[in-house]
Amino acid sequence: MDRNRAPVTPGRGLWLAVPPALFLGAFFIYPVASIIALGLGSADGSSLGVIRDALTDPSLHRAAWFTTWQAVVSTLLTVIVGFPAAYVFGRYDFRGKAALRAAITVPFVMPTVVVAAAFLTLLGPNGPLRLDLGRGVATILIAHVFYNYAVIVRTVGGALDQLDPRLEAAARTLGATRLTAFRKVTLPLIMPSVLAAASLVFLFTFTSFGVVLILGGLEFSTLEVTIWRATTQRLDLAFSAVVALVQMLGIGLILVALSRAQQRRAHELPLVTIRAPRHPQSRRERWAVRSVIWFTVAFLGAPLAVLIWRSFTVNGAPSLGNYAGLVERDSRGLFVPPIDAITSSLTYAVPAMLLAVVIGLFAAAFLAREKRRVVQVFDTVLMLPLGTSAVTVGFGFLVALDQPVDLRASPVIIPIAHALVAMPLVVRVTTPVLRSIRERLREAAAVLGASPGAVWRFIDVPIVMRAAAVAAGFAFAISLGEFGASAFIVRPDRPTLPTAIFRLLGFPGDATYGQAMALATVLMVLTAVSVAAIDRFRVGEGAEF
User: What is the DSSP letter of 9?
Assistant: First the structure.
């Protein structure tokens, strides 16, 4: 028991759960329940017939099969490609390691539309590699590996960093080869981390939307893309609801199976008391570290570099014409000048960030103060938006939010959708900091006459401010790049940056393509600035209070 903590009176912080509970109930549980009701019922009462017709539809079978196998292959490729880098980052120290580790995270937080546009430029017929892969399965798989590379490197590399290297050295002393020692000693100990990272990659690729929508063309469609096309192109809401139910059921079963597999392989890791990584000594080790560094820089940097290069060229010559075209009002594919999408995205991102931080702080404060079993249930409910696809959320908004006030045509709905996606991350960032505050600090302030509001303002807020700033940066970046929900609810005259990029990519011609590259570059820069701000606030975080 922590002697610095006084017993917590059950129920005294229950009111803190009210705002996040109302927010989730109105904008997540109710829309998802409406999808379920739409999928299980119909206007003429023939619910079984609607479900049977949808489940026997060949397009659903094709989408479900493609969604599953491409997610499996993408996960395997990501683990295979990312594992060498994870091993190098976890075992060795080298110059520029911290900067490269931070740079690896940038592609992961990049909007999917930007990633898809970058690979369309790199692997297209006019790209520098002249591969002409264009739109297809190969490009989708490569883009998924690019997008999720950081998940494997950061998660598995972190586990290796904390694992005592003397265990493997002891096996070598007993006669085991380097490969045998790694296979028999190290790999079983880090396997839970590998499975955890793989489950995240599988979840992200199973619910992939922007990458598949842009790079898959009309031939390839995941469940996410099927929901979007059935709703926006065929107006078949009943079919979309059944597909959404199939997707949610599939995600739930897969995550349960992966969680059980991870628990079966769980070990108590013998952690080191000194820092494990060391500088590479032998020629083989130096070659391995250099190879990983060069591959990482080339693999992650090339698509983004080509994207920037293409945005500054017109007909193969350097030019600012693509950026000048962003202010033209007769731009094809949009009802407004493309530059207006920048203003719209920033206009949506600020209130979405504020809403996510406020609701997330209420939830985090409740989780930190309450000690009852209900906290575990509430924490699970708070994380549900992360496990539900953004397309399903957007579709739920379209189905449910027409009464008592019709919000579907209101611009207010977009910051709400973005905040719903970002709020769970705010909770995850701020809850540990609030839990680290010693209860005696609050009690001392109360004894001196401070009201509960004053205690929160003068004790909790200054301590949690840095974590809240980090959470705000994440929320801002997520809002800028959110595409799945926005594809359903964004107004044609108020497009966000991702939806504007997608529309421009859908029209032929070098002019609109160049403008799409310019907008993608702008979005990439805005996201990178958000990540840089997050890293700045992370400095010094984690102090014990």
Answer: P
